[in-house]
Amino acid sequence: MKIWLIQRSEITPIDKGNYRLLRTASIAENIVKAGHEVILWTSDFNHFDHEHRFKKSKLVKYKHNYHIQFLKSIGYTKNFSIRRYIDDIYVAKSFTKLALKKDLPDTILVSMPSIELTSSVIKYAKKNKVPVYVEIRDLWPDIFFDVAPILIKPFVLFFSIFLNQKLKNSLKNADGIIGITESYLDWALKKINRRKSLKDVVIQMGYKKNKSNDYLNETHYKKILKKFSFSKKFQLVTTFVGTLGKTNDLDKVLEAAKLLRNKNMSISFVIAGKGENYSKLLKKYSYLENVYFVGWLDADEIRILLSKSHLGYLPYINSINYKFNIPNKPSEYLSEGLHLALSLKEGEIFDLIDTNKIGFSYRNNSQILVNKLEEFYMNKNKFNEYKLESLRVFRNYFDADRVYTKLTNFLIDRKNDE
Questions:
Q1: Which of the listed CATH numbers 3.20.20.70, 3.40.50.1580, 3.40.50.2000, 3.90.180.10 matches domain 218-398?
Q2: Which residue, among 113, 112, 251, has the nearest Cα to 176 in the 3D structure?
Q3: Element (DSSP H or E) covering residue 34
Q4: pLDDT of residue 223
Q5: 271, β-bridge pairs
Q6: Which of 221, 240, 312, 317 could be joined to 338 by an S-S link, Cβ 3.0–4.6 Å?
Q7: Can you say whether residue 69 is alpha, beta or left, with left for phi > 0 and alpha for psi between -120 and 50 degrees?
């Protein structure tokens, strides 16, 4: 089979730097491993470092039966901006132009967002009678209102009406819908007022974990360990890894660090990552002796930091996008046996934590977080037990090899049923 995977803003296996491959690239690997051919379509603009790869559309052969088609893009500086939407339109038009020159695939999986690219892919698939599945990865455009500045919320609300209609048309014309949670799938089906069919499925976000540190150069490994040597001074190491931006509320976490600093407890707070709020948080909290800002980390550094940690923060804003979602971060923490500290008091992640007893909710309240951390700290003798439980949940629900083999089989089986 020839399968197209279309996702406009993920890391690809040819990108420079020590990045961890995410969902779409992992699915591509599974498709090739199963003996099929894949083209991964994505933007030429690297969403993570905000740089163009080739400054044009370009087809790259990565390995046998695996090509990457980069689509010309204008780029953007802010992830939430008019220019980014214009870039989405540009990338969608680049797809339409190039797709006409390709041999027809047997099936297509397109990730939503973006709405523009999804719409173009669906139109192409319907015109050429190619089975196409839409994978719901974010609740666009509904989430725009949550992150929009107050002054432009009325405009965002009006614009969302237009985007919602475009999304509904795409979902109605898709052969099936894939949600990363039940809530995501339900959200999409409600948009088009239809019931779940055999061609609609939930396949959660997986995480591909390296099995050991054997692949690391010994000098590099020791250098990373030295970078995190401060962790040896603390009996409980709590960590956040991610973007310091609008969708994460780290103030409550760091206020808890402030409240705990004068207590006789060996607890550290490690903040790994960069973003628009980095400078503000650094200025406000870096004086605390139990807080460590370690900046942006590569994949090896993240893995080693998490292996030295006991608990991972999920400080999401109160948005349906996170209530309905289980993104990459929980599985990344669980892969190294961390317990989870969640800001939300309901939703998919809350239920996962509560059902499996792998952490707690602090309800985005710094004092509640202090109380929970004190309780967690007092049970130091159970840290190994907690770790084993988190690793069990990771293996059962989030191991990428298992999750993405399931998705690959779904695409192949649905085609065989045609």
A1: 3.40.50.2000
A2: 112
A3: none
A4: 86
A5: 240, 293
A6: 312
A7: beta
Distance CA 335, CA 354 (A): 18
* Cis-peptide into 327, omega within 30 deg: no
Can you give the pLDDT at residue 121? 98
Q: Measure the CA–CA gap between 364 and 349, rounded to whole angstroms.
A: 14
For residue range 37-91, list pLDDT tens digits in order: 999 999 999 998 899 999 999 999 999 999 999 999 999 988 878 899 999 999 9
Q: Which amino acid is present at 143?
A: I
Q: Are 132 and 6 in contact (CB under 8 A)?
A: no
296, pLDDT greater than 70:
yes
Check: CB of residue 28 under 8 Å from CB of residue 62. no
Residue range 76-85, pLDDT digits in tens:
988 878 899 9
Quick one: 2-206+399-416 is in which CATH superfamily? Glycogen Phosphorylase B; (3.40.50.2000)
Is the predicted pLDDT of residue 247 greater than 60, yes or no?
yes
> Do the domains spanning 2-206+399-416 and 218-398 agree at the CATH topology level?
yes
Report the amino acid identity of residue 206. Answer: G
pTM: 0.89
The number of C-alpha atoms within 13 Å of 300 and in the hemisphere containing its C-beta is 16
